[in-house]
């Protein structure tokens, strides 16, 4: 009797000889394609800093390389699984088609939407959605600046000077949508006509009632006025409009980040006026670096008040935050900016207008300080920045870090990435230009100097310094902040915008948790998703040997001096034939992992302290049921599935001589304790990984850590740490009750780690 379609036979056939070698060969092909794709993606991401010159030929070559490698991965996973994921070909073809559309300059599928929410826009959307709306969306979405709620009316909304029926419906729908709409009773409508040379005309209408009828009428009236202002030849120009909430405000104003005082001096200018008296303008001039000291102010006359009375000006703290946010915008956009803002009754600043200013460079730059405090390191992102030193670590909250300050850290840990939204510059004692934080620094265009030994000692809190990344020095004192050197691409260059569009379709990773219901073929939205899905499913085939039809005899039991029944499946250069124990492991990443796991003091063989509540809690949770502990190993690769008690761990790692290829994925879930104990254990794991530069995500008792683009020695050290963590963390959740216990366990772990690394004669 034949089994039902899709069911596994009761006793799967054994693959041996050529059949087994064929299965492993397909997996090696998938692994090579995945590694090569990550290398090409890393090359694309390195261009984001702006200091590297690239052209369309580079973009086409790199994008098509990643596409080809993703296609190979899709083919390989289907060859390994008997075409179980044929639908992945369809998803791949759709995504690859979108990549080709970008390379060919064809519009994105969202370009034909008549209305788009402001917070979803990015710079690369400016051609169809308008530059001002796209720039505000960039500042809100990428920098997290407080931008007014609103939406744009795109070029696709218009027909012969009026809104199309579809556009009218879309305007009404978004005004009624509490999540996407402006959330205000009154809005401002700003409509522009733009040609290749820039904005031909602009009309602004304030105080429009936030109803579909009023906004539609204001849009069409503004279009007629704009065309009348621009004159003949504008009828063919398709307009775009920005509609933003107009909240009640105490004061309104505009900040310009670069106003030239002299050939060598540039200040930041802030104009403020009462909401009900726009003619009474106060003007302030500040430094362009943190703490943005006030240099002078011009206060408008106030009837019945002294000329020096500045009581209606924003407080000093608000002005410092405003200046810092504006300078962060200038840094990201690569040019001085003019930002319109309102100061709400609550004291909150909200930006509602932006203009990127094109200024001729000064004939002479402001002189640099001369006293060198530190030199050396590796340039992660070029530029010059001045500001006050603020020491940071993985626990530093973004809200506690002042805009424009100079962040100084021990290690260039990925957990510090949120601070780059605010930092004027980043300095780290440990790290390199290939790491995740360096990639994020280039994305945010933050000057960053890593691998600068002694930085925390030489740069104490509160010291004003200048970081000159290109020269590799930190100087005492301040100068004018400068972007990356001239000659690189700015954020509004066509090639740069094309790169941004490509990375959204190629490198963004949406599928992060294999246990999530969204981890499906249909959930693949980028080439990176396709690669990650194919790799995960291929690993699952090899991890469960019997379902793969591979004899258990092909997996070699590894004799270890701890109670761990680990079987190793050698898919090419992973083991040394005839050797035993750890000496048999040739796989570079697996050897590093096991060294950490076997480190003195890490493996506690005492039974866990378990209560009835812990047992009942564990019985109520469904955990993955791997068939024992298994490692798949090649010379430069390993994938390890561990079931240690009620903990389920997956480690996937590749280590080669090229940093661009090196990746580590770590997944830790489960536990025998109650929810509080498991959460505390997850906090412990998360904090340990963050200290070693892993990018960490956590949800409940699930912790996922990633490390990529690191030197091989750094990757080996990180994998050794992961091995020690796996051994040390087993069954510890039954002893934890809160974050305080997690902090104590973290301290105990690092104390044990230091002892394990000490010379044998120094150990107690």
The gyration radius over C-alpha positions equals 29 Å
Q: Count every beta strand, where a strand is a DSSP E run of 2 or more residues.
A: 29
As a percent range, the share of helical residues equals 25-40%
Large-scale geometry: globular
Structural class: alpha+beta
Molecular structure report:
Helices cover 33% and strands 23% of the residues. Helix 2 runs antiparallel to helix 3 (87-103), helix 3 packs antiparallel against helix 11 (494-506) and helix 6 (165-176) crosses helix 7. It is α+β, with helices and mostly antiparallel strands and 764 residues long. Among the domains are: 18-108 and 501-529; 149-245, Dna Ligase, domain 1, CATH 3.30.1490; 372-476, Glucose Oxidase, domain 1 (3-Layer(bba) Sandwich); 552-762, no CATH class.
């Amino acid at each position: 009797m034949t089994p039902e379609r899709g069911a596994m036979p009761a006793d799967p056939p054994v693959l041996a000889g050529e059949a087994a070698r064929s299965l492993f060969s397909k997996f090696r092909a998938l692994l090579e394609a995945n590694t090569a794709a990550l290398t090409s993606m890393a090359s694309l991401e390195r261009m984001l800093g702006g200091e590297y010159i690239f052209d369309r030929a580079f973009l086409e070559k790199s994008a098509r390389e990643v596409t080809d490698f993703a296609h190979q991965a899709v083919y390989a996973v289907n060859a390994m699984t008997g075409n179980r994921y044929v639908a992945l070909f369809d998803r791949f073809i759709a995504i690859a088609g979108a990549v080709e559309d970008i390379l060919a300059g064809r519009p994105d599928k969202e370009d034909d939407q008549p209305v788009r929410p402001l917070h979803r826009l990015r710079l690369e959307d400016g051609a169809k959605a308008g530059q001002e709306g796209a720039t505000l969306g960039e500042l809100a979405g990428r920098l997290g600046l407080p931008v007014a709620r609103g939406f744009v009316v795109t070029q696709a909304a218009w027909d012969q000077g009026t809104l199309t029926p579809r556009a009218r419906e879309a305007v009404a729908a978004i005004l009624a949508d509490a999540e996407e709409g402006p959330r205000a009773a009154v809005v401002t409508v700003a409509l522009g006509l733009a040609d290749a040379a820039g904005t031909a005309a602009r009309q602004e209408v304030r105080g429009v009632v936030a109803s579909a009828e009023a906004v539609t009428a204001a849009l069409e009236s503004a279009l007629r006025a704009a065309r009348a202002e621009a004159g003949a030849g504008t009828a063919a120009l398709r307009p775009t409009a920005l509609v933003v909430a107009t909240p009640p405000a105490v004061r309104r104003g505009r900040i310009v980040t670069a106003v030239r005082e002299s050939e060598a001096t540039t200040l930041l200018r802030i104009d403020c006026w009462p909401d009900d008296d726009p003619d009474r303008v106060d003007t302030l001039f500040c430094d362009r670096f943190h703490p943005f000291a006030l240099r002078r102010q011009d206060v408008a006359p106030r009837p019945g008040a002294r000329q020096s009375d500045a009581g209606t000006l924003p407080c000093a703290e608000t002005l410092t935050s405003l200046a810092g946010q504006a300078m962060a915008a200038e840094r990201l956009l690569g040019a001085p900016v003019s930002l319109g803002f309102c100061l709400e009754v609550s004291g909150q600043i909200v930006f509602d207008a932006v203009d990127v200013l094109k200024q001729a460079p000064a004939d002479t730059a402001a002189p640099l300080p001369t006293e060198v405090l530190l030199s050396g390191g590796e340039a992660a992102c070029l530029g010059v920045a001045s500001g006050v030193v603020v020491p940071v670590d993985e626990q530093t909250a973004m809200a506690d870090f002042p805009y424009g300050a100079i962040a100084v850290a021990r290690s260039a840990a990925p957990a510090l990435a949120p601070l780059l939204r605010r930092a004027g510059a980043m300095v780290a004692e440990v790290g390199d230009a290939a790491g995740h934080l360096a990639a994020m620094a280039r994305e945010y265009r933050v000057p960053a100097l890593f691998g600068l030994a002694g930085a925390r000692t030489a740069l104490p809190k509160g010291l004003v310094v200048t970081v000159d990344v290109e020269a590799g020095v930190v100087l005492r004192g301040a100068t004018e902040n400068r972007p990356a050197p001239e000659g690189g691409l700015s954020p509004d260059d066509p090639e740069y915008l094309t790169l941004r569009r490509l990375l959204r379709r190629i490198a963004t990773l949406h599928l992060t948790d294999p246990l999530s219901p969204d981890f499906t073929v249909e959930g693949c939205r980028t080439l990176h998703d396709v690669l990650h899905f194919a790799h995960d499913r291929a690993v699952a085939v090899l991890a469960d040997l019997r379902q793969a039809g591979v004899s258990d005899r092909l997996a070699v039991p590894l004799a270890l001096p701890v109670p761990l029944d680990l079987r190793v499946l050698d898919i090419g250069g992973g083991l040394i034939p005839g050797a035993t124990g750890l000496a048999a492991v040739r796989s570079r990443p697996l050897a590093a992992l096991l060294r950490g796991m076997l480190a003195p003091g890490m493996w506690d063989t005492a039974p866990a302290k378990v209560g009835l509540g812990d047992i009942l809690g564990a019985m109520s949770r469904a955990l993955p049921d791997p068939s024992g502990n298994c490692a798949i190993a090649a010379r430069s690769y390993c994938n390890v599935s561990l079931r240690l008690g009620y903990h389920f761990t997956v480690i996937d790692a590749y280590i080669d001589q090229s940093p661009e290829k090196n990746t580590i994925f770590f997944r830790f879930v489960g536990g025998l304790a109650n929810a509080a104990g498991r959460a505390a254990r997850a906090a412990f794991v998360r904090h340990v990984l963050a200290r070693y530069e892993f990018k960490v995500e956590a949800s409940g008792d699930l912790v996922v850590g990633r490390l990529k683009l690191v030197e091989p020695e750094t990757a080996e050290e990180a994998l050794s740490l992961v091995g020690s963590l796996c051994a040390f963390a087993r069954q510890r959740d039954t002893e934890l009750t809160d974050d305080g216990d997690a902090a104590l366990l973290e301290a105990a772990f690092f104390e044990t780690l230091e002892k394990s690394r000490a010379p044998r004669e120094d150990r107690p």
